[in-house]
Amino acid sequence: MAVEIFCPYCNSKTNTRDSHRTSPTSVAAAVRCRECSARFEVTIQFSRSHIPNFVEDLEVFKWTEFRPANDPKFHKDQLPLAL
User: Fold this and answer.
1) Which of 8, 45, 33, 35 is nearest to 16 (CA)?
2) Distance between CA 7 and CA 34 in Å, rounded?
3) Does the global pTM surpass 0.90?
4) Is 5 within a domain?
5) Is 83 exposed, middle or buried (0-12, 13-18, 19+ CB in 10 A)?
């Protein structure tokens, strides 16, 4: 789990012991305090989501005039390297 949860009793960081997805938008986790050993059951749930709308740019999908590298004509037309 990538969320830092602090103990309400001693305000130190907790360790996640076990977690499982209860639904597509929520996770339940058992956490334990590092200092005072208090144990908690935590539920984390998405409260709001947003899916952006993308507009396809058809200019991107046009073929270029370059030949693919595995084309035999590509190697013939390629300039020799000056080493």
Assistant:
1) 33
2) 9
3) no
4) no
5) exposed
For residue 21, being part of any structural domain is answered with yes
**H or E segment to which residue 76 belongs:** helix 72-77
Task: Decide: 29 and 44 in contact? Cβ < 8 Å.
Answer: yes
* 52-to-30, 49, 55 alpha-carbon distances in Å: 33, 10, 10
Is 4 part of any domain?
A: no
Whether residue 63 lies inside any domain: the answer is yes
**Token pair recorded at residue 37:** 């050993």
Instruction: Please calculate the CA angle 70-74-76 and round it to the nearest 5 degrees.
Output: 125
Give the pLDDT of residue 31: 94
> What pLDDT, on the 0 to 100 scale, is given for residue 47?
85
**What is the mean pLDDT for each group of 10 consecutive residues in the chain (83 residues)?**
83 91 90 93 87 67 63 64 57
**Number of domains, the chain:** 1
